[in-house]
Automatic annotation (TrEMBL), chain B:
Gene3D superfamilies: ABC transporter involved in vitamin B12 uptake, BtuC
MF terms (GO), sorted A to Z: transmembrane transporter activity
Tree of life domain: Bacteria
Protein name per Swiss-Prot or TrEMBL: Iron chelate uptake ABC transporter family permease subunit
Cellular localization per UniProt: Cell membrane
Organism of this sequence: Pseudolactococcus chungangensis
Length: 318, 318
């Protein structure tokens, strides 16, 4: 009962935050503000949902509440693609006509990388997920190296363009991107929602899950594919948002106090949207655009991360 | 014995070829008859470059080895434990607040940050379950991301991102007489590590064991972190970040020669230096007369080695 109450409260909070965000300081131009900010809100909702679904299922998969999917190196791959495209085609290539194709291409590339990685997981590391994560991380470092190499030789003006693309930016989301992303995210999230009961069982541990009749490898593979696709799409939409998932998932566990993934997904998404709106509000009105949402998320997420480790330690002591 | 001699000859060949590869032709057999320009190239560019490659290669691999002993984990290195990111934060700090600071000052500040960051991570890592060897480096990377995001936060506000990227890229082409001498500090550090090698070897067996065997564990650990932080920040400030080296070289050496550190230290230093020399020469040859930065080459070769290493490790357990 309390769980339902928490969800309803969260939902109401999101509604209030949305309407406040839409109407705060509009200087009488309500229509204009709604057109401009509505786009952002849609982006927040999409990214929030993608983020919470992917992180929560990733943490169940890796049986660890400290890891986030960005360890797989998808963010770094995105940075590499962007750097490469500016490096090869120059910033002129970022005109409006090509941006949709750019977006689709980025999604396709990240998805194919993730499919490939999941395929390797299935073939090579039969049950050792951690090894797989480590390899993802190494690849991430490798991608970072390559992009770093190119970023240093870029012309500073072009680098400015790149920088604009690399930081999570909800203000220059294109409407047609939003539609495509919305459709894809909806499909994948429905898929994960459908897998949720199996994830609930997986929460008991790999061995128990196998004993209870879960096809572990198949589940791992499918979930991992969904996770990477979600992260890829959300990264292609707004750039890397790495620590958001961590905060969201952990708050969701604490608030909901349940292992049921469907409730966790729901609460997580609402929390994510709430946090994003709050963060963007801070960026716009407190920091007056002097920083980016990404940095704020990463910083608070980081503090929360360290706090969480210390907290769990104290919990174990008792 | 013959192996030792062969090894030394190999290193000498590498050093000599590193000195004589380059745009300005230095005819090796007409040593006495060079023009003053050729002498200048030798003394102020080639020789410093080669020396710094040897020292940096050795000290990065050795600090990786020490760190792996201190944390009892084969997969940590200054790159995966927040040391490098903390040093990076220090450099950003210097760039913003003391823009005209001399190199020594930059190194000192970077060292301070690196030291504190590594201590913090050691503190955190004690709260993690130590059984899972891959979790610690993964958390270390996330910890590094947090510190890195703080650095990015300030760099972004001061338009220093590209500048920072070029600082951090491992690159030996800018090494000149007058700006690399700080690296010589690594040599006494190496001697100190060698003197304490037995202690570090025992510390790899765990805190209780080390204390039982009469080692003042806390003090030694501070010494160890101090050395690692100092040598990492020296390398970072004078030549930039060199990925993977600190993990691969010690691991390959201990796979082949065991874990006794007094034996391994010179070997680790030797292989680190040779590996870096080879990578740098590859980078200089491939697109001559231009150069590919050494960190990219190390990144490519290193990630392949690293993944191979992991796979081998996993096969041993399964």
């Amino acid at each position: 009962m309390t769980r339902k109450l928490t969800s309803i409260t969260l939902g109401l909070a999101v509604l209030v935050a949305c309407s406040l965000f839409m109407t705060y300081q509009t200087y009488g131009n309500l229509d204009f503000a709604i057109a401009l900010r509505g786009k952002k809100i849609v982006a927040f909702i999409l990214v929030g949902i993608a983020c919470s679904f992917s992180t929560i299922s990733f943490q169940t998969l890796s049986q660890n509440k400290l890891l986030t999917p960005n360890i797989l190196g998808i963010d770094s791959f995105y940075v590499l693609i962007q750097t490469l495209s500016i490096f090869v085609f120059g910033s002129q290539s970022l005109s409006k006509a090509t941006s949709l194709w750019d977006f689709l291409l980025t999604i396709t590339l990240t998805m194919s990388l993730s499919t490939y990685l999941s395929f390797i997981l299935l073939k090579k590391f039969k049950r050792n997920l951690f090894l797989f994560l480590m390899i993802g991380m190494i690849l991430g470092t490798f991608f970072n190296n390559v992009s770093n190499f190119m970023q240093v030789i870029l012309d500073p003006n072009e680098y400015d363009h790149l920088q604009g693309k690399l930081f999570a930016s909800f203000s220059n989301v294109k409407p047609d991107h939003l539609t495509i992303a919305a459709i894809l995210i909806a499909i994948i999230c429905l898929f994960l929602w459908h897998l949720a009961p199996q994830l609930d069982v997986l929460h008991l541990g790999n061995d128990h899950a196998i004993n209870l009749g879960i096809d572990l490898r198949r589940l791992q593979l499918m979930t991992l594919f969904a996770i990477t696709a979600l992260v890829g799409i959300s990264t292609a939409l707004v750039g890397p948002t790495s620590f958001l998932g961590f905060i969201v998932a952990n708050i969701a566990y604490q608030l909901m106090k349940t292992y049921r993934h469907q409730s966790l997904f729901l609460a997580g998404s609402l929390i994510a949207i709430l946090l994003l709106i709050l963060g963007e509000f801070l960026v716009e009105h407190i920091f007056s655009f002097n920083t980016t949402l990404n940095v704020i998320i990463e910083f608070t997420g980081g503090c929360y991360f360290i706090g969480q480790i210390l907290y769990e330690r104290n919990g174990n002591k008792r | 014995m013959t192996k030792k001699i062969a090894g030394i000859i190999f290193l000498v060949i590498l050093i000599v070829s590193s000195i004589f590869i380059g745009l300005v032709d230095l005819p090796i057999f007409e040593l006495g008859t060079w023009s003053s320009r050729q002498n200048l190239v030798l003394l102020s560019s080639r020789l410093p470059r080669t020396l710094s490659l040897v020292i940096a290669g050795a000290s990065v691999s050795v600090s990786g080895l020490v760190m792996q002993n201190l944390m009892q984990n084969k997969f940590v290195s200054p790159n995966t434990a927040g040391t490098m990111d903390s040093a990076k934060l220090g450099i950003v700090f210097v760039m913003i607040f003391l823009p005209n600071a001399p190199l020594l000052m930059r190194t000192t500040v970077a060292f301070g940050f690196a030291f504190l960051g590594t201590c913090l991570f050691l503190l955190i890592s004690r709260y993690l379950p130590s059984k899972n060897t891959i979790l610690i480096p993964l958390v270390g990377i996330m910890f590094g991301n947090i510190i890195g995001s703080i650095a990015t936060f300030f760099a972004y506000q001061h338009q220093l991102l590209q500048n920072m990227a070029s600082w951090l890229q491992g690159n030996f082409s800018v090494v000149m007489r007058g700006n690399y001498e700080l690296l010589y500090l690594s040599i006494p550090l190496f001697i100190i590590i060698y003197l304490f090698a037995y202690q570090f070897t025992i510390m790899a067996a765990g805190q209780e064991m080390a204390i039982n065997l009469g080692i003042s564990y806390q003090k030694m650990r501070l010494v160890g972190i101090g050395i690692i932080a100092l040598s990492s920040s020296i390398v970072l400030v004078s030549v930039g970040n060199i990925p993977f080296l600190g993990i691969i070289v010690p691991n390959l050496v201990s796979l082949k020669f065991g874990d006794q550190m007094k034996n391994n230290l010179p070997l680790t230093a030797y292989f680190g230096a040779s590996f870096l020399l080879i990578c740098d020469m590859i980078g200089r040859i491939i697109i001559a007369p231009y150069e590919i930065s050494v960190s990219l080459i190390v990144g490519v070769l290193g990630s392949i080695c690293f993944i191979g290493l992991l796979l081998k490790e996993s096969r041993r357990y399964s």
